[in-house]
Amino acid sequence: MAKKRVLFINYSLHSGGIEKSLVTVLSLFDYENYEVDLQLFANDGLFLSRVSPKVNLLPPLFPSEYKLNIRQAFFALIRKGHPRIALCRLLVSFAGLRGTMGERLVRMWNVERCFIRPSQKQYDAVVAFMEGQPIYYAVTKVKSPVKIGFIHGDYTAMGLNSEFDRAFVGKLNALCTVSESCKTALENTFPEYADRFHVIYNIISSTFMRQMAEEPADFEDDFSGLRVLSIARLSHQKGLDIALPAIAALKKKGLRFKWYIIGIGPEKENLEAMIRELDIGDYVRFMGERPNPYPYLKACDVYLQPSRFEGKSIAVDEAMVMCRPILLTDFSTARDQIDSGRNGLIVPMDSEGVEAGLEDLLLHEEKRAEFSQALAQCDYTNEEEIEKLYALLNH
Fold this sequence. Notes:
alpha/beta; single chain
């Protein structure tokens, strides 16, 4: 029997939860029955090297120069012989200047769709692995009888444009998300398509993670106190700015600890300015991207996720697998992951809440041990979730 041809689409493979989830799905995929192509808008990112060799990585939709800032990108694209894409990049930079995330995405896509090439092949199924451009591209530029989308966050909290997205949702056979509360948000926004929404949880392999965690964790300092860790894109969504005043308040109280942040992103300069203003440079360390974050998870004393909103945070799932005491702000899906007071703490989404929760965990070793023991009672491996995706691909 001929293999089914499936196209996966994502923007890039930078070190975010969505990208990690996609690489995990592709590592577990059934290549005896499926032939898989991967289309990225930009062929770059930390996880590009972790894509299964059985996947056919297509040429990117945009040259690598496209991702540079507009001053560099425009002339670099012209020099490389891409004048049309240079014009596209210029118009996109204007389109993305103002408005909500949803408004910017819509304007940017309305420019990009005029310049971007359609898929060259016909597929049996296409899977757009994130909201925005990947779904828009799958619906308008790919020939396939089965079209599946993914939204990894709480649609209501993400600031997307539901009026624009409604037509695209209507052309998908299925739209998957990562938690029950995220599914509810979709049902509330697009009630007419409620029967197309499915929950496929982020796939976790505990055995793989624990093996990876055996490598040494180099924190690149000689600090010997308690270590707090966050794995997060440096973006507004992740709420790192909410936590910084809490760090300053705890420093004033004389608590000895250090906060390590693994990740990159657009808010780094703003966060660094806040750190200087609060005089907490000795308490916060940016670690950049790390291809293997698991040794750091294993070695930390508290895992902190001060997000404004999440779908179902992969980093929190991973901290649970590693049995680390977890502190979350009260974002809409926090209680889908943590039972506050039993295996972690959920605090109000403000600096005072983070301060109180972090102080509680840092001062009470027995509470940290209690949370770790509660997490150790469960096996979070769920590789069978991929069967739900196969069912949709074969629908």
